[in-house]
Amino acid sequence: NQVAREQALVRSAQALERDNAGLRTQLVALNHQVGDLNSQLARKSSQAAGAQDALKAEKNRTGLTSVSGPGVAVQLADGNDPKVQGDTRRDWAVKYIDIQDVVNLLWSAGAEAVSVNHQRVVPRSSFYVAGSDLLLNGVHLTAPYEVDGIGDGSRFNSTLSSTDNLPDLKSRNELYQLKLTWQTQRTLKLPAYDGALVARYALAGR
């Protein structure tokens, strides 16, 4: 029956999320082992040490290392459900596109690094709908959300405060008390991206 099928799907989804978390833990451990081996190699060869420095710089640029510094923490949470019959828009709830808009706004304001609920946003990251929640880097995230950005806190504050930015989100904040707040921070620590890196296309260097 329908209830049994839905329960089976829920159990399957939960099992997949547990498998995903386990594989990510294994990946982090393997990356540490690779790092240790590379460090040993760098101590034995100046050429290898130079290559390691170049690799570290590339990892920093692509979000593969943790980073800390001043910035801003943006909080988003669902508002009050007016319980309108037949409502499919759910404007009282935080949507994936709201998160995406905030992230893009922080990038435009000069963010050096961004994360959502402690999931690092990197060039290959994509935001997907997962029911009423968010799927980022293959990880299921639920409200409330915190979007952290490292950079110039005063510039972030000015950008977020501007009436020209996030007009839809701010309007829904007033209508449904949907939470949209932010606070500059002296120190934020963002984790490294811990997902798989799959390159489907490449261009020869020049």
Explain what the structure shows.
There is one protein chain. The chain is of the alpha+beta class. It is built from 5 helices and 8 strands, in the order H-H-E-H-E-E-E-E-E-E-H-H-E. Strands 3-2-7-1-8 form a 5-stranded antiparallel β-sheet. A 3-stranded antiparallel β-sheet has the order 4-5-6. The chain starts with a helix and ends in a 16-residue tail after the last strand.
Low-confidence stretches: none
Mean pLDDT: 85
Instruction: State the end-to-end distance.
Output: 60 Å
Identify the overall geometry.
Answer: flat
Helical proportion, percent range: 40-55%
| Percent of residues in β-strands | 15-25%
Briefly note the structural class of the backbone. Answer: alpha+beta
How many beta-strand segments?
8
Helices, by number, come to: 5
Order of helices and strands: HHEHEEEEEEHHE
* Radius of gyration of CA atoms, rounded to a whole number: 20 Å
**What is the strand arrangement across the widest sheet?**
3-2-7-1-8
Give a quick account of the main beta sheet: strands, pairing sense, barrel closure.
5 strands, antiparallel
List the defining traits of the structure above.
5-stranded antiparallel sheet, 206 residues, alpha+beta, 3-stranded antiparallel sheet
Question: Short summary of the structure?
Answer:
With 206 residues, the chain is α+β, with helices and mostly antiparallel strands.
